[in-house]
Amino acid sequence: MKDSDPLAFTHDFPPVRTVLRPGAALTATPEEARRLGLRRLLVLCGARGADTARAVADALGEHCAGVHAEARMHVPVEVADRAVEAVRAAGADGCVAVGGGSAIGLGKAVALRTGLPLIAVPSTYSGSEMTSVWGLTQHGAKRTGRDPVVQPRSVVYDPELTLSLPVPLSLTSGVNAIAHAVEALYAPDASPLTKLTAEEGVRVMARALPEVAADPGSLPARSRALHGAWLCGLSLGAATMGLHHKLCHVLGGSYGLPHAETHTLVLPHVLAYNAPAAPEAAAAIARALNTDDAPRALWELPRAPGVPRSLAELGLAEADLARAADQVTGEVSANPRTVTAEGVLGILRGAYEGAAPVP
Ligand code: NAD
């Protein structure tokens, strides 16, 4: 089969064991550590997740080397430096990251520097746990890369951990997950299996989010959302992301906008822009959302009290739109539609104003 054959593909899902069940944070994490032969684990988390992380540390018992509660959004280099020092001082042979993408990102930064294995116990739907992508922020710029050494060896999904995730953050984190699947569906390197996980990820997450919003204490709804996060995260790990991820990366790294909320506001506009150039992917997304207007459905899905409606509300200045568009245009390596400065500016303006996406 030649590379130019439209049916040719290369497929590479990460070698990661995944457990999903209520209570797994406390019961499965020690089991996973034992399976991996780890005997001295440092537990990493952010300040707000410290109580849960301590419960995981207690469950690890004598195999816990301490709790390091310094994770911060986008992994500032100095935060990573301190975590590496803590790992060395504790003589740890591995880490457990308990929390959202920020805690898992810190675990990945430690793995990148030390080569130590990581177990991830996610408490949001960011999907970072299913990828070998790391990120580090220095002097206001975020660098990212791929390295198999940062891929968590085991992922422990516990819906009980997500019961405390407020509804607005549940919705935006869920749409963050859907964004991975959307871009995987039109990625140039998406394999047939990646397309299946991505379409199913959109379907499962889009069904789970209204259930979570209606009853945030429902364990089945929370399990379904984590199931969706897993599928979407797998898609992210296996495919090259396009314009949407680049745009959100710049808005987060250079303008300090919050991750999940930014993804939520930008995604409908990017999909409206890209859909005409990616008809197969657009059809799959519409099928998964059970709609004939996928950008509009993604715009409506997270609309609830407490969810920001516009990038203006998140604090982006109107004067930054053109600058952000400049930073993105010419920097996107994989996107179904040619990325023009005018196109990016139109997307940014729509998200800035919180307008409905225009096909
Ligand atoms: P986050 O981890 O920063 O969490 C957001 C907020 O929610 C924090 O204040 C946190 O304390 C709180 N929180 C988390 N779980 C909670 C829970 N169960 N209950 C109550 N509060 C809870 O945000 P995120 O959106 O999960 O992750 C964003 C970060 O992850 C960004 O830095 C992003 O770049 C990175 N990320 C990386 C990848 C990758 O593949 N490398 C993928 C997705 C996201």
TrEMBL record:
PANTHER family registered for this protein in UniProt: ALCOHOL DEHYDROGENASE, ALCOHOL DEHYDROGENASE 4
Keywords in alphabetical order: NAD, Oxidoreductase
Record's keyword annotation contains NAD: yes
Family: Belongs to the iron-containing alcohol dehydrogenase family.
EC number assigned by the record: 1.3.1.32
Name of the protein: Maleylacetate reductase
A molecular-function term among this protein's GO annotations: alcohol dehydrogenase (NAD+) activity
The keyword Oxidoreductase is annotated on this UniProt entry: yes
Gene (UniProt): tfdF
One family name in Pfam for this protein: Fe-ADH
Domain Alcohol dehydrogenase iron-type/glycerol dehydrogenase GldA as annotated: residue spans: 19-159
Domain Fe-containing alcohol dehydrogenase-like C-terminal: 172-352
